[in-house]
Specification:
Blueprint: E1 11-14, H1 23-33, E2 44-48, E3 54-60, E4 65-71, E5 87-90, H2 92-99
Parallel strand pairs: 1-2
Antiparallel strand pairs: 1-5, 2-3, 3-4
């Protein structure tokens, strides 16, 4: 099975790095206790490691949990979202850019014609 990311997928990027030793249950608890967000909504939660060499995506598909990890073979993530809040909602295109170690703000994407789900 392949995880599909559509334009309507809610994607939440966590600003602070997390310890990747947490695993499924630790990240689920992090979402509930620290972010005060229920991870069983089907949203994608995106985390980065302290070294910026890994990204993890946690989601619940209605039947079980998915935890995808990308370990960069060269380099590290140069940019990451930051805000006064703990998490920021981003678009699918921004997540794909982050997964390629790019900067969504520097990508030059055009504005959305119609906003989806409060993005």
């Amino acid at each position: 099975m392949v995880i599909q990311i559509s334009a309507a997928t809610k994607i939440l990027v966590v600003h602070e790095p997390v310890c990747f030793n947490l695993g499924f249950r630790g990240l689920i608890g992090f979402c509930r206790n620290i972010l005060k967000t229920e991870p069983m909504t089907g949203a994608y939660f995106v985390f980065r490691s302290k070294t910026r060499k890994q990204i993890r995506v946690l989601t619940y598909d209605g039947d079980g949990w998915w935890l995808a990890t990308k370990l960069f073979s060269k380099g590290s993530i140069k940019t990451w979202t930051s805000d006064d809040e703990n998490i920021t909602q981003i678009a699918a295109r921004d997540l794909l850019t982050l997964l390629w170690r790019g900067s969504p703000s520097a990508a030059g994407f055009p504005d959305f014609w119609k906003r989806i789900d409060g993005m």
